[in-house]
DNA sequence: CATTTACGTTTACGCATGTAAACAATAAGG
DNA sequence: CCTTATTGTTTACATGCGTAAACGTAAATG
């Protein structure tokens, strides 16, 4: 048994549970339940269901402790976030990735440190920058193709 | 009737349809169908269903032309992408927004222009940067709170 | 004009998801 | 030891979503 799920899909509701586990490293269902009872106004049963589903899909580990479990995350938050962000970039033309990043930066508050760090990354990225990012879109799903006139 | 849906939720499958409409500005179902028959290997019926649902939820406009429709987008791609990206940032601690942007930048190919543009934006952001972004997470869902010890 | 074709509308159906009650088993308390 | 509280497991159920067939009607074609 135990198919190792590399990258289980975490739904919105499940994510709320994951956040509690990520924040606490090791938690009991009780803690998760009370946190979400408060934040989400969920009944205990709801949180229990979500914990169960997350264990089932391999996102959480359990460690028996008496008759209860200690839950811990089996996937890292960073990993989960990245897989989430990748979904966005799969929805758009690669040529627009820069624009999207731009609008994200515009829309969020950053610290001086953040800005400096991003500047450094950009500086490094110059070594790998291209003249023009190429469109990977399917024909008909992006107007980049309109530039290829003639055949 | 006609509740104006400001920001309808667009699912993965629907997004494929939207991309075709966005790329072509005005399209017939025939064009959408043939594009997605090719890219997604969808039966005509599938695309028809999605077109119907998108019209229903206000994401697409229709304009009668004889006995057929010309479909056009009722929401902008940029708008849709932004609402999608916001979902991510609602899932994480605001303190980590910078890190996520960092990893997005690292993971994608950018053009020299992109980089320059981003550098300019960052430069401007400095005027509004903060010493430390503050955590908006609910108690128990983020370890930032651990720093507030004492009360 | 009868038949085929094209295109929008209805209906379908299984699985995922959000939300939760009911149940079972065990520990804790009186 | 019996009752109650705790905690995990089962079952439930409406809605959303992916995927598509069937149907109705109008247009095109022979």
Automatic annotation (TrEMBL), chains A, B:
SUPFAM superfamilies: Winged helix' DNA-binding domain (SSF46785). The keyword Transcription regulation applies. One of its GO terms (molecular function) is DNA binding. InterPro entries: BlaI_family, Cu_transp_CopY/TcrY, WH-like_DNA-bd_sf, WH_DNA-bd_sf. Transmembrane segments: none annotated. Keywords: DNA-binding, Transcription, Transcription regulation. GO terms for biological process: negative regulation of DNA-templated transcription. It comes from the Bacteria. The keyword Chaperone does not apply. Pfam families: Penicillinase_R. Belongs to the BlaI transcriptional regulatory family. This is Copper transport repressor, CopY/TcrY family.
